[in-house]
Amino acid sequence: MPRIVFLDLETSSLEADGGIIVGAGVMSEAGESEYFEARRTGQEKPLLSKLLKRLESSEVIVTWSGRGFDIPFLTTRLLKHSMDPRPVLGMMHIDLNEVVKFDDLRVTREVFLRLRPMLEGQLA
Question: What's the whole-model pTM score?
Answer without folding.
Answer: 0.81
